[in-house]
Amino acid sequence: MARPAQEQLSLLRSLIDARSFDEATLRILRSFLVSKDVESSMQVRYSFTEFLRSQSISVIRSIASKTVLEKLYILDFFVRAFAIVGDVESCLALRYEALLMRNLKSASYQWLHVSSVEWLNFVEDALHSGFHSIAEKACQHALLSIRKNDVLEPGLDGVPENAGAIRTMTRLRNCAMTSIASRSVQAQAAEYLTRKSSEQGKSKIICEEKQCLASTSFRNGIKRQNMRKLQEKRSPLQINDE
Question: CA 21, CA 81: separation in Å to the nearest integer?
Fold first, then answer.
């Protein structure tokens, strides 16, 4: 029998509190997401996504004093956990943090060096998922890293060994920047149309109010004119009666 969602979350929390960042915990998470009911499955995934987001923030804050290797191990656990629940944004964000950490520490620990292939895979995944801003930032870091290594280790023919990677990364960066600019233009256009629609709505209300006032004034004017005519007709009659 399937465990209730709250019981599942409680079990997962106890595993994370116990720092069980291993494959066994990920298998348990996968088993919790098995459901024949699509609507129920979506609700469970949402609950686990929110839970993992809060837990990841708490855990990452608590490991500031850990070694680089321990930090990367925990980041990898949450990357895989977010991938299981389908939270692409959080998955990419933590992958990016792990790459930045390795890139920063690689000056002291060469084995942490981020290869051009790893940068390329990440950028392509980010672009494919629609996260153009993070893809553009990753391209910038990748280009700096690749060019730095080219200066240190040129190819045998004098041409940088990663020249092809630089061209590819530059193309992807330009693609990301174009998409960001396009989205910005679309957002501005949407904002303009919304504002224009609001202004037109206000103008319509004012126009209707003016038309209403004009119509009321016209009717009142007709009434006053009719009253004057009636008074004019009654006056001779009153004189004759006297």
Answer: 10
